[in-house]
Amino acid sequence: MASPLVNSSPPEQTAAKTTVIALAGQPNVGKSTIFNMLTGLNQHVGNWPGKTVAQKTGTCTHDGQKFTLVDLPGTYSLTANSEEERIARDYIIHGRPDIVVAVVDAAILERSLYLVAELLLLPSPVVLALNMMDVAEQEGIKIEPQVLEAALGIPVVPLCAARGTGIQELIATVESLSAGEISCQPQRPTILPGHQAILEKIRALIEDSVPVPYQPAWVALKLLEGDDEMCTLMQDALPEAIWKQVHDLLYQHEDAILDIAGARYQWIGRMIRAAVVRPKVGQLGMTARLDSVLTHPVWGTVALLAVLGAVFWLTYTLGTPLQEWLGDLVALLAESTRGALAGMPTWFANLCADGIIGGAGMVVTFLPILIIFFAVLAILEDTGYMARIAYLTDRVMHTMGLHGKSFIPLLLGFGCNVPSILGTRIIETQRARLLTVLLAPLVPCTARMAVIIVLTPLFFGDMAGLVAWGLVAAALAILALLGILLHRVILKGEQVAFIMELPLYHLPNLRSIGLYVWHNTLAFLQKAGTIILGVSAIIWLLSYFPTGVVTESYLTLFGHWLEPVGRWMGLPWQMMTALLTSFIAKENTIATLSILYGDLETALPAALTPSAALAFLVVQLLFIPCVATVATIKQEVGNRWTLVSLLLLLGLSLGAGVLVYQVGTLLGA
Amino acid sequence: MLHRLLRQIAQGTHLQTTAALASTLDTTPELVSQMAEQLARQGYLSENMQCADGCESCSLKSLCGAKNNGARLWSVTEKGRQAIRRESE
Q: Which of A110, A288, A412 sits opposite B50 (nearest CB)?
């Protein structure tokens, strides 16, 4: 046991008839419930002197003995990090309550015990109120109060304050302790040997100058912990030469906090091992069992690929029939609009029917597919599996040499490339940051995925799930290969030091899934109603004027310039134009194709060979990102590197497209 | 305990989970998270808050510890690396 850091002489209030009890604890552990149960209407609410924090005091009587209760502000420790912590510790040191009741949440005992470890170093005797025993029991956590009492060396009272049980036992224990009928011999955490000698040295230096009522040993400990308030106190109290010695010692041992707090955690660990029996079955057990497979390097990867496959299969199986039905509806609506606008100029009726309804409307028909896709993603997210994907992805990428702080921004890219580029700010070295910015647009964002999800079944029918799955896997493989190249050659394997707290698996919450789907659908519809609608109208106008014949239009003229590049990939000019309009927003590809081809379901498969279709999807997946991402890249790394990024992506996407088409054609596809 | 945890995190060559670290350090994942928070408060680790606004529509929101009860990520800071170097000297 550590040497006591407190003055064990009875406090002044003991002489008075009223016993003063301070209720200490973290926020939300039921401290106020205990206070209210004990004091009833006999309470007073004011402010702590000179502070804005509320002070609650009250009185109660038990067996003729009067008690004054002081409800201290909720705190996690006593390190003067916040006003609440300063108030709590100042009250215990200066107010010297007869007893401190440390209220802890039995269901999260580890979290509550750090404060107890600090309370035991202060002068007042401590009683542990083990609240929320019912919650702990519901969660399968079994705590043995007698064992905990023996381990801590202080009285422990189990209670469920919300139900009113254990309150009388608590006050009776406080009464017995204040009357000296039971003893209190706390087993305090010790400081690790590494800093014991230095603690003694500081104590010796400050001993004669520590202001009353502080205890030199406690002040020395707090100085070594780096407590700002104690540093100021002792700097004022000590002669300058002595303070300089103390300050030099503190500077030399600035990492002492690791030993001091580390010893407290060791102490908590011992208490928990002694008195708490963890659940063997249930949620925790299920999470551990599932993680043994789902985060396993081999089985986890197999499961991840299977889950991604299932996501695509489900999306297409359920969504495609709905999309076809909506497509017919949009075609009907377009014809009705054309009929209704018969009296208007032809170009205007056609713009509304083919440009707006045919373009932006066709994009909206894919909503069922996207809603299902978003819902499946939301389920993966809400069950806790998405976090495992992140963990697993890091492992897989690590085996390929791609790791480091690049991991987080790259991961964010799956949502949207813009926060991904912004996220590279966490990378310290400029070189590593630049490389990550170059890699980030290769991560398929939600918008790119939406285009892939929509176009793949048009080209590949029943094989769409497999093709989409293969495309995503290929994009990630290209990203990893480029990563290996860049990191090995330029970064030479920067070290990663990350830890991740994985959430427990749980059943998905319908409301969360609904909200997720709603937000994504709304964002998609907003885009369809603004950017996509605008671009659709412009594309249609360019495809109509000057003569009203598509083959003689401005768009055809422009599209023919791109034809030589498209020819290497078997892509007609319409496909190349669609690709270019994706620069404004990825979804524009669908709208443009719809304007240029009309009925996508029959026209598209006829316009392209399977090799050309696959080449188009590959180019679409690897092409330069949308204008918002490019603007973000420019903002983060400047013009020169933006140009490098665009050229790299352009070369990579077109190169991969040509390769896929040429190899596919050689194979006869 | 905190020194050991810091060293263990820094030695990692890939992403480690609190559960795996708890097993290595013979403690509970809850206590590892708590110690990571303490190390972050003292500046030896930094908690990576990835998300700002618009988490509702992000497919990775469970990775953002600040906004909900999801996964949390910590990384070793320069101060943390210096502390490890000092300890091994």
A: A412
